[in-house]
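pasting for the record
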Amino acid sequence: VGDEVNVTMKISADEGTALGNANVVLTYPSEKLEFVSGTDSDGGAGAVRVHGASNGSGTALLEYNLKFKTLSAGTASVGIDSYE
């Protein structure tokens, strides 16, 4: 309890396919985790929206780092609610 947990989310495309941007909504149990900060992200109260673009170099991988604070003991999962 009180520790920070880092979550790395990676979005990849098939080889030869470039990613332009991402818009992903993640959910998490707000009684166990508190969203602190993240790459191109905002949210709280059980949901985080990650929205970012590639740097224009035609990458097939986007990577986002999210930081949560633990509020209670036990296990918790971060899941995908929706994505574009």
